Amino acid sequence: MANAMPQTAPFGPEELPLPNANVSTTIAPAGAARHISGIPTVGVLFSVDESAEAHFCSASVVHSPSRSLLLTAAHCEAGTDVVFVPDYVKGSKTQPYGTWAVDQVFTDPRWADYDTGSDYDFAFARVKKNDQGRSIEDITGANVLARTPGWTNKVTVIGYPGEAFDPTGRAISCTTATSRLSGLRQLQMDCGGYYDGTSGSPWLLDFDPKTKTGKVIGLVGGLDGGGPDDSVSYSPLFEDALFTLYRTAGG
Fold first, then answer.
1. Distance CA 77, CA 122 (A)
2. What is the pLDDT of residues 114-144, one digit of tens each?
3. Domain covering 27-249 in this structure, CATH number
4. Which of 100, 140, 175, 230 could form a disulfide with 156 if both were Cys (CB 3.0 to 4.6 A apart)?
């Protein structure tokens, strides 16, 4: 993996002030995710070093000048022995948007899977062009990376549970409210069904069901590998550290 030390220079959309750390917000009542047919910008990660029979994390395509960047969780530890399959269809010999080999992965050296180190649980993966010389964004489109605007947001979270938890292999989606995870610079959302495998799933603000895209303001990650159980999920805030890493990765 390639590492980059984040800086503090502002980047991206104008940063909105986050509420005071003492402000408390209320999460909407917990619901349950539903199966969807999938979207082109979200897919699964497979290891090619093993049998590749089971995907282990989710990832999404984000817009970048290189048109080749994925966003996922650092704890997924995606390396160059990994492929990305957008809009994954279980059992299909051919995938609707192909299979993309990861070329390089970028993580923040401050990331750890505990305490404040989990605030940096995000990673970018650059994928190679396909056999026709086309970049992934030219095929799938992309979501737009955006700063987390505050603690309370309405997000649509799309990802793929591991097949040990959901044998259908289908994508799931939940639209719900976020709040602050006390003590850390992380968001929380309550929605059932986000088992192992959904780590790295994008949290999409202003998701448009027609274009099937939105603004990515978070992902399933952070403390406890993204949450203590399938019904509570966390996300690191998208701030300067993430956008510095994005630039390093070719964004």
1. 10
2. 999 999 999 999 999 999 999 999 999 999 9
3. 2.40.10.10
4. 175
∠116-203-183 over CA atoms, to 5°?
25
Contacts of 176 (CB under 8 A, 6+ apart): 27, 28, 31, 154, 155, 157, 189, 190, 191
CB within 8 A of 209, min separation 6: which ones?
none
Selection from 135, 19, 37 nearest residue 90 by Cα: 37
Distance separating alpha carbons of residues 242 and 251, to the nearest angstrom: 11
Amino acid at 212: K
In 228-241, which positions are buried (b, 16+ CB within 10 angstroms) versus exposed (e)? eebbbbbbbbbbbb
Give the chain's end-to-end CA distance (angstroms, integer).
17
In whole angstroms, how far apart are CA 141 and each of 12, 89, 97, 102, 159?
19, 18, 11, 17, 17
Task: Write the Ramachandran bin of 193: left for phi over 0, alpha for psi from -120 to 50, otherwise beta.
Answer: left
Residue closest to 13 by CA, chosen among 155, 215, 222, 178: 215
102, β-bridge pairs: 127
Q: Are 197 and 226 in contact (CB under 8 A)?
A: no
Note the pLDDT tens digit of each residue in 43-95.
Answer: 999 998 755 568 999 999 999 999 999 999 999 987 889 999 999 999 998 99
Tokens (6 digits) for 151: 């603690």
How big is the CA angle at 200 (ends 196 and 202), to the nearest 5 degrees? 120
Residue written as tokens 């069904």?
193
